[in-house]
Write the structure tokens for this entry.
Amino acid sequence: MTHSEQHLLQPTPSAYTYPLLIKQLLLNSMSLHGDQEITYRGDMRYTYRDFNRRIAQLANTLTALDVRAGTTVAVMDWDSHRYLESYFGIPMMGATMFTVNVRLSPAQILYTLADADTEVLLVHTDFLPVIEQIRDQLPLLRHIVVLSDDGKLPEHKLALAGEYEALMAQAGTQYEFPELDENTKAVTFYTTGTTGDPKGVCYSHRHIVLHAMATALSVCSPGGSQRLSTADVYMPITPMFHVLGWGFPYITIMLGLRTVLPGRYLPEVLLKLRETEKVTFSHCVPTILQMLVSGAEKTGQDLSGWKVIIGGSALPPGLCEAALAKGMDVFAGYGMSETGPVVSLALTPARGAPATHADDLKLRCSTGRPSLMVDFRVVDEEMRDVPRDGVSRGEIVLRSPSLTPLYFKKPEASEELWRGGYLHTQDIAVMYPDGVVQIVDRLKDVIKTGGEWVSSIEVEGLITQVPGVQEAAVIGVPDAKWGERPMAFVVAAGDVDAKAVREHLLSHVQAKRLSAYAVPELERILFVGEIPKTSVGKVNKKQLRVDAPQAA
Amino acid sequence: MTHSEQHLLQPTPSAYTYPLLIKQLLLNSMSLHGDQEITYRGDMRYTYRDFNRRIAQLANTLTALDVRAGTTVAVMDWDSHRYLESYFGIPMMGATMFTVNVRLSPAQILYTLADADTEVLLVHTDFLPVIEQIRDQLPLLRHIVVLSDDGKLPEHKLALAGEYEALMAQAGTQYEFPELDENTKAVTFYTTGTTGDPKGVCYSHRHIVLHAMATALSVCSPGGSQRLSTADVYMPITPMFHVLGWGFPYITIMLGLRTVLPGRYLPEVLLKLRETEKVTFSHCVPTILQMLVSGAEKTGQDLSGWKVIIGGSALPPGLCEAALAKGMDVFAGYGMSETGPVVSLALTPARGAPATHADDLKLRCSTGRPSLMVDFRVVDEEMRDVPRDGVSRGEIVLRSPSLTPLYFKKPEASEELWRGGYLHTQDIAVMYPDGVVQIVDRLKDVIKTGGEWVSSIEVEGLITQVPGVQEAAVIGVPDAKWGERPMAFVVAAGDVDAKAVREHLLSHVQAKRLSAYAVPELERILFVGEIPKTSVGKVNKKQLRVDAPQAA
């Protein structure tokens, strides 16, 4: 026995050493909430008990398809009960669930399916045409199981293992899920960066369990503003293929919440489900929030009591105001594909609750306060913490129990991500004395003009406050004199012009809330029909840089 | 690379693999709640920032006393800020904190100090006389540091390393706490069983962190009845030497709560602090609750808004009613020294909240619902789950991330505790269909009469409902005809006699809520001045069995 081993607790041989496994997230739910309900689109309904039985049936189904420990099983589906079953059943077997981004191009989907060593694919009928195109380039792919909403199969040329429900019906309802090492790879998916090949992010059982516990506690505990409890009704509006639905399906199943799976994200369907199913807790990107608010404004629907975490990109203050006016309780969360994802939440705590509406709005739209267990730093290039003064800028770097330890098969990118032992987010932020963080830009989106840094996000936020503006995106464009100058792309919803936008920005300059060099020239404020988006709904600034008029 | 290793996530070399360590419980608090207050008895006050600095000073102080990784540092103190500093500073160094039960006899204290290999002792002046008696029998003990409330030292013959505050004043305020293995032994203390030598229970950093997260979430999340949030003010009333204050000092510091450390537990001091410091969250044993309720009844003090978890022994319905009448929000929790301790809580959730006062009372006084992540079973002697029918009895056996993996230096007792891979509690319980558990007895306290089992706890609960009864304890006494018969010891607070007690029990027999053979004969209902207690305030049934009149 070495000196250091002496201080470790060596359990008695019979003692059960408790690895952190996804199956344990079900323990409490199944004991206390077995009759709780899960519904798919309000049509199909079953209980947690049924859900638990079907997880076993899925494991038996996959075992019959020779899925073993370490096999990659890919899923292509809209948000459904089948997806939720996969979230548990696949990793609980010891296999790896790969949540395929169905919005990628067929070429990218092929790349990711191949890169992830996919052997079995569960695919919704809507995506069969994509798979038909690429099937013969996936030699490792052994079995395709079809997910069908009506039990019918469209025409196709694929060799199939069968239809999901038909296979499940033949499968046994008991399965002894193994005691895995908690560091076993549980899920993988691909970052949808705007440059380079998609990169595979991986999480273990331990990562997922600790993310669920720490994030749930961070949402549950702030005093006087409890945003999540067992009385809530949950509906995801971040696709389950996108960073594990931000981890919330694991959290809400752990807590035993009634769960509404909406299928495809059609605003009218989402708004109807929210009403008929009495949904109280969701999460989505600003683009979806915009659609929900617009939809409710058209119908006059009241959205009171709907708590919605906004992430993916910054929550524009104008949109936040519109959502609050509809009765929604919206606030930002922050994270990335690589970070679990949630690492901070813009929750209002009882102590130090904002005194004014403006402060409340500012907090709700901020990057938020670090979650429990997250070592959240804003550092300069020498990894020194910048002052917490709300002005000094630095990069957000992180440690937490839930960060991806690597990019799959990409050792160099992995080392770059983790240089110095902290995960580098490439997000530039300031920190306020009370610990609230505000991202001011992406490292690559910061505009450098005349030696000064301009935050594209800050200017975008101000432009969305101009009456008649629906959306705005700001990029840096080359400028002979200043190096770069900001250029704004604006989508109008009402009567607004470039002059009104510029005057609003200048009023903030006069009030010393914005630097003069951050205001685009009149000819660099362009009105457009729409702003290009990436596959997950983020503004595609790479595309905007290509599209930008060079003469402007 | 073996087959099984392939499925484990091997982080990129630079990636920070995040061990679960006590120091991480401070991350969020120090970032967001640095100005939060900790007070000792309402006299001394400092901020979390001061607390953090003093943890570093404590580590430097102990380093100067040659405390190293693995060194056992024992603490003998009332609940104080110094104790709280020890909770963090000692294990964060890699040393082991031993929380000495100051209510044990000098011989038992000697036994536990020696058994734990204590090298350094922090001891309050009140306990110096005890240490004087046993000092020369502790050859491993190298240093004694005195904790003094007034900076003065009473007369004594001991060689001392110094007084805590004097040593702290000389210590540096920076300390680089090491990155430990999460399985490093962090704390130890001794079970105060009524038979045999005390047994040392051990917890690692991982045990403590996971207990804090799972228990906090279990208290925070039940819908509509949130019992703990960052807006609460915390005062422990379970001694910090007793099962780590049931783990709550770690939880409340993690969440950033204002913290009131009351020193000794004098009812009038506790009631005063609760009022002046606006305490909203505590935990205590029934005996202390009884003192608090009686004290408030005398002064007419209203205790509304005080949420108090009751553990250590069953919460008697009569006492629960009295506490509710004073405005307290009391409910039971369950656990043991060996279990972290909290494994279940008798919280009212929004869904399925009790409809009637009687049902509410029954739930509050129950063993509760299993906490998150706890595999909580009630099993027969062949380890089969008993039916969840509220009638079938079995032993509670457990797995959770926070159970002691062993008794220190006691391999046989450790194996017995963990036989079959589950921790055996020796508590006999029933489980209801909704997952609520009710302990009906200790394995050794069950009364076997005429081949039937009688729950001593059930009879005790009914007796405490009789007007004029303050407390009751029931044991089995030998009986020639029936093998055993129940005998009740009753403490009267008003006008009550054995006949009234028996009639009350018989009314429950008539209502079919109690078996006839569970009612003691009139001559086996004895009124006594007090009921003997163990050092932690539990009824000492072993003593009662010795005291019981043999003729009765």
About this structure: The two ends of chain B are 72 Å apart (CA to CA). Residues 447-547 of chain B form a domain with the GMP Synthetase; Chain A, domain 3 fold (CATH 3.30.300.30). The CA atoms of residues 344 and 370 of chain B lie 4 Å apart. Chain B has a mean pLDDT of 92.
